[in-house]
Amino acid sequence: MLTEKLLLHVLIVLAPILLLSFFFEKRPIGQSPYFTGMLHSLSAILCVVFAFYEGSLYWDLRYVPLVIAFLYGGRSAGGMVFGFIFVARTVVGGDALVFALSGIVLAAAVPYFYCSKFIELSPAKRVKNAMLMGVWPSFVQIMILFSYTFYYDGETNEEFAQSLSHVLIFGIIQVLAVGTAAKLYELVIERSLMKNEIERAEKLNTLGELAASIAHEVRNPLTVVKGFLQLMQRDDKADNHPYIPLVLSELGRAEVIISDYLNFAKPEFKKLERFSISQILSDVMLLLNALAVKQGVELVSDLKSEPFLFTDRNQLKQAFVNIIKNAIEATPSGGTVTVSLSVSGDQAVVTVADTGKGMTEEQLSRIGTLFYTTKDKGTGLGTTVSVRIIESMQGRVSFKSELGKGTEVTLHLPTVQND
Ligand code: ADP
Ligand code: MG
């Protein structure tokens, strides 16, 4: 009988959250604590009114809306539910009224003090902690049961045992109800966050396209300026303008940034062909060897196999250059950068491992995001461009790093048959 009643209450306490999910995205009512409080108060009152009466105690799930309202709606919502339960319970009356009222105060106290911390937790932790919060009212209920029996002593042992089993069933259902309610709440929150995220991504996408077209327009005048400066430099026999080389090198940098950005915005695969990936890696390492020697870094290659790819050769080269260059730049003199190539199933696996300074967890999580750099003259485009290129080739990139020990970048690329 108790179980049936409590299962009905589970429905009653979940109803406000389902209702709220219709309104959640409609500001201002959807997220107003008073609206939330109102809905939960209603379900709490229903719980009190339809309580299961036995052994001079009322059994119901009124604490679930109380806890949930405090945790997810804040103090004003929780306070409202508290007030309504208090009044409703007083109206119902009965000889255990004093115990019931003190139970309500005790049960509200913990979520009242805890709720400001609660909302800052991660969603998964929130559900767990909410369930723990659900244990507290059950505990209060047990205390009430004991003290009530102690004071009135009207119960036989048999009745007491039954009450105890009720507390157990009650406790389990209560914790489950709080858990389900919290999970439901999280789903509602997640859905609204996701909707905002999609809207933001759409805006960013438009902005990105705009930026790409501006970058494209800026490149043309830059080329013209560069051309004329080169002419001036050639005619400048007496070296009247010693700063021209500097201007030219900065212009070159601007050009690289713009073309990197354009490549990021839309990697263009001009010419698709079949080629050997080890050939490309050898080319790139030859190209970067000068930089490695300058830094005092040993560049080691370990090209075990000879897989073939079908894609744009130059784009792939660009991706490798960016990643290997980062590895060289991160490695102090005397260190090594090892580039290895192997095959796993129908995937070519390239790893670039360095013995450099490595990255912290935080840096590792930010790598690959646009404009993230820790270097003075860095652009924060290299990794992002590489990841974009590899992903457009249906490949994937993963980073592993340990601070002070080094970094390992692994690239997987789909291969094609030899012939
Ligand atoms: P940039 O090289 O212009 O700074 P990147 O996108 O190439 O931009 O790299 C972003 C950042 O990632 C670098 O500034 C660096 O802090 C970090 N990083 C990339 N590769 C490595 C590596 N192999 N070891 C340590 N840090 C790295
Ligand atoms: Mg770089």
Automatic annotation (TrEMBL):
It catalyses: ATP + protein L-histidine = ADP + protein N-phospho-L-histidine. GO terms for molecular function: ATP binding. It holds the Pfam family HATPase_c. It is an enzyme of class 2 (transferase). Residues 213-417 form the Histidine kinase domain. This is histidine kinase. Its EC number is 2.7.13.3. InterPro entries: HATPase_C_sf, HATPase_dom, His_kinase_dom, HisK_dim/P_dom, HisK_dim/P_sf, Sig_transdc_His_kin-like_C. The chain crosses the membrane at residues 6-24, 36-53, 65-87, 96-114, 134-152, 164-185. Keywords: ATP-binding, Kinase, Membrane, Nucleotide-binding, Phosphoprotein, Transferase, Transmembrane, Transmembrane helix, Two-component regulatory system.
